[in-house]
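User: Show me a protein chain along with its predicted structure.
Assistant: Here is one chain, sequence first, then structure tokens.
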Amino acid sequence: MKGEVNNTTHCFHCGELNPSERFFYVMIKDEKKQMCCPGCAAVAQTIVDSGLTSYYDHRSESASKASPLIPEQLTQLAHYDLEQIQEDFVKQTNENLHEITLTIEGITCAACAWLIEKQLRQLPGLQFINVNATLHRVVIRWQKDQLKLSVILTEIHKVGYKAYPFQIDQQEAFYKQQAKSYLRRLGLAGIVSMQVMMFAIALYANFFSTMEAEFIHYFRWVSFILATPVLLYSAQPFYINAWRNLRHRTLGMDIPVSIALLGAYCASAYATITSTGEVYFEAISMFTFLLLLGRLLELRARRKASESSSNLLRLLPAMATLIAVNKESIVAAKTLRKGQIILVKAGETIPIDGTILTGISNIEESMLTGEHLPVHKAENNSVFAGTVNLTSPLTIRVEKTVQHSLIADIIHLQNSAQQNKPQIEVIADRVSRYFVGTLLIVALCTYISWHFIDPTQAFWITLSVLVATCPCALSLATPTALTCATASLNKQGILIKQHHVLETLNKIDHIVFDKTGTLTHGNFVLLNSITHANFNKQQCIDLASQLEKVSEHPIAMAFNKQQKHHVIITDVLNIPGQGLQAIYQGEQLKLGHAQFCNISNVLDSKELVIYLTLSEQLIASFELGDTLRKSAQEISQYCHQQHIETTLLTGDISVKSEQVATQLQLTNMIKGVTPAGKLRHLRTLQASQKILMVGDGINDAPILAGANVSVTLSSGTDIAKNSADVILLGEDLNKIATLRHTAKKTTTIIKQNLAWAIAYNLIIVPLAITGHVAPYIAVLGMSFSSLAVVSNSLRLLK
């Protein structure tokens, strides 16, 4: 009754028996519900407080389905809508827009992905959703002021799927659970198939011709009894998926499979009970066994395709040694906060992104860059989570939490790369959805036609048509290849932000390079300083150093630690591609190239020269040295071998630009160009060519965003990395050749997959309709078709 304790013997939350000596209760919908322990009471109260009481309306009475919509360990902390919980798995892309990657249980094909997307797109505040059927993951972006994460999870649950934040441990547990479930069902189907096949073969071979009819009927009843648990238990995943599709008015591959199994079973049961007609119990058991075997092999192949990105998370240690008040303590790595100091001993994995305070060591960074040679690190150098400290202990200041580390960004980029489906994948998904509807119509027409031609063959042939065709192969052809290609590139330190990259790279016929920090190291050194007015050398260096403090350009590094006296300047303005200007003692101070500073008498030098002026009077010239990257020569040679046109497009107007272009034998060289000028030149080239742009600076951001494909280095500015389609970890420009090679191989494999899927279905359907494909051959063909597509895509991981 309202306001009174509901005196039940079982806990309302978990279903366990309540203790007799004491009880706990929670007010749920104006009714006191009894709980067995403080834990259940706390969780139930959290669900009520977060407005999720509808969970109790939707949950199943079965103990196996009474689990919460969200992971148990998270419900014990609070609920999904709390910001402190979302810190671990929700990324805030702007002030009001949030993004999350969820693991989805129960996805079997592209139709499942389409169903989830269709269900969630009706939610107000949902900005973006993309379901990856290969990885069993979904990326969602939503407006937090209009939509709650708990509502998103509830909506996914309503269409028959379970969702929770992607975490590697839960992903592994889900895979093992799914694999065990398939093995149990497969085992039952296999054992029954052998037993029922013995009776069927003996009957077909007329071994029992001298036996009385009641004994033959007895063997049919035994087969009936044995086949029933196969149909009801082993084949259950097919019915669940089919019912889910029908309930939400969509078509999936499990619908014709379920029709075939249930049709064969009902016909056989009727024949057994009435003692008339043929039985197909051996076909039911064998079909189920072969279908489950195909699903299990496909599950393992998909796991192989997705485990590369998951393995990145395994590289992070769970614990870290925190140094506080000269005392060491072991803490959870994910609890570390910016500014804390940790100790990483030789041989240990670094748990966070940070800066070395004391110590010198070699760091193994191959998991990030793909380059296996250790990197020498000393004080003030940056280190990254997941890399290994090889030789000496280091004390490190935490700069970023685990959730915002470089490795977390890499995983986020991997997920982002799945968001924009290539056009070829969109078309394949659409075709596969209509494919099933067409298949059902063809199967019906086949049955009607054969009923007039040969009624005894009509059922068998229709059965073959239903299970022979394979739209799954069509829908898997592109996403599995793209997933494997992305994983392979990530291993080599190449991060793809947009999937169109792998499509577009095959059409690239012109590569445009920036110079400073791209073809050159960008590690400028101040070689010479020349004063031209009543300022001494150190005064000029102090002024230049003070100006460069606001700049992210590599030139600023040349003045790092050069300043000896503080200088007061105001109204500092950074003009990308030009230089810097400010107000010093009421006069305009400029630092940049000759044109920006209005210098007509340019210093003759083979190196880069920048000028310092005060009220348009030259007061100093600075000669800066920079060196070419070793890989710049190699990527230039690659371009020549592949007949790709090259252009050096730089804002530098010094003689150094001609030297670099000549040394690398680049096709074209254009210098002294502003960011807007670079973009205009790009538009001119794009009128007749597909352009790949390689740059790293703020002034490259517009052209990186405008190019057909853009690449930047991990050492580039944040705005360059945000604008680029691809980020190269490390400094090896040869990865551009690797990227292009992988893109070509991926395109080839996608074409092979689609050709196989289309050819298989075009061949198998007419053969099945005309009665030339036995049902068991049809099942094998369908399973093999999907497996062939996934296995072919896995070649990209090698």
